[in-house]
Every structure is written in structure tokens, then in C-alpha cells.
Amino acid sequence: MRHLMYGRWALVELLTNCLPEQFSLNGLKDDMNMVSPLMQPITRWPFYAFLGGAMFCLLASSTCHLLTCHSQRLSYIMLRIDYAGIAALIATSFYPPVYYSFMCNPFFCYLYLGFITLMGIATIVFSLLPFFQKSEFRKYRASLFFLMGFSGVAPIIHKLILHKHQPEALQTTGYEILMGVLYGLGAAIYVTRIPERWMPGKFDIAGHSHQLFHILVVAGAYTHYHDGLIYLRWRDSQGC
């Protein structure tokens, strides 16, 4: 039992190492000395879910690019894992803003979380269908992921109405708009194949649309990471 408890504590400490100092275990202990003894740090699982989704997406994409040239069969499998990773990233990106915005309103919290989770699962299942891999469905693939991300407008507007007097609501919304712009721009470049469509053959090695798409996805995920830190600071200090 002692080893089991120690293992669980070590896992929690390991997970918190990905956070800045003010959100680490030591930082939380220092913060606890400055707030009411009854105030406890909020749960971190939505933030960790987002980090897990982002890491799965980038790992799946890297593996796909590494192994897709092996054979037609392996390429068939890896492309599906790649699309599943994109859907996982989009779905888990909703978890921190939705949970921390509506943690004091359980009905809307679980309504939004349930909707985006089901939509993410449906997108993954649809992406696994063989006919979806054809080149003529390229625009539809991008549109499906775009619509999935665009569904986040509803909880963002709801958050601004519910917390209109909280400065953190405006700060997080700014990050979320920037994240949406980065993801949307990446999807647009991916679909239109810019810039190689303007100068064929000039961007075969570097600078083509797929590379720009990945850069913008990483930038969007990094923006959302900082967005999640604001949520943690806000809810740790104020709770409900």
C-alpha cells in the first residue's frame, strides 16, 4: 500500500513538471499560504487531457510522415491515425476552457463537454472510412475539422456573457481567438495548397503548404497552452 501511494504521488509530481513554477506543487503550496485555508487547488485533468491530445496528435503526425512511405498498406493505416490525432487535438482543446468556464454550472459544463466529445468520436469514426481517404475528399476533410473547431464559438460567447465582469474571461477569449485564427489559417493553406500551387516545383523540399500547416498547428497548440494557464490561475485564486 505504501508503495502504491508513493507511486501515485510520484505520478502527480511528474505531471506537474510540465507546468510553470507558479503552477507546480511547490508553487501551489506557496499560493495556499496566501489564500484562505479552505481554498484548494482545482482539478487539473482537463488541462492534462488537452496536453495529452496535443502530444498524441503531434506523435501520430510524426509517425505518419516517417512510416507512410513504407508501403501502401502502412500508409493506409497511418493516415487514419493522423486524422484521429487531429480530431483528438481539437476535441481536447475544448476541455480546459469549457470545464473551467462552467465548473460552477455543471449542467452547461457537461453539456458542452459531452457534445464536443461525441463530435470528436464521430469525426474519428468518419475519418476511418476508406472512401474518406480519396484526394477528392481533401476539402471535405478540412471542412469537417474546421466545423468541429468552429463549434467552440457557442461556449466562448456563453462564457463572455456569464463572466463579463471577469478580466480573465477577456484574456482567455483573446487567446482562443488567436488559436482559432492559427488553426483556421493552417486549414486554409492545407486546402488551397499555397504556395506550391503558384510556383510548382519550388517548394517540394521546404516551404510547402503541409509544412506551413504543421507550423500553424503547433503555434495554435502553444497559444492554447498559455490560455489554459490563465484558467488555472483564475480558478485557483477564486474558485466558484
TrEMBL record:
Subcellular location: Membrane
Matches recorded under Pfam families: HlyIII
InterPro entries, A to Z: AdipoR/HlyIII-related
Binding site for Zn(2+): 65, 210, 214
Transmembrane segments: 47-69, 81-98, 110-132, 144-162, 174-192
This protein's UniProt keywords: Membrane, Metal-binding, Transmembrane, Transmembrane helix, Zinc
BP-aspect Gene Ontology terms: response to hormone; response to sucrose
One of the record's GO cellular component terms: membrane
Topological category with respect to the lipid bilayer: Multi-pass membrane protein
GO molecular function, one term: metal ion binding
KW Metal-binding (keyword) present: yes
Protein name: Heptahelical transmembrane protein ADIPOR3 isoform E
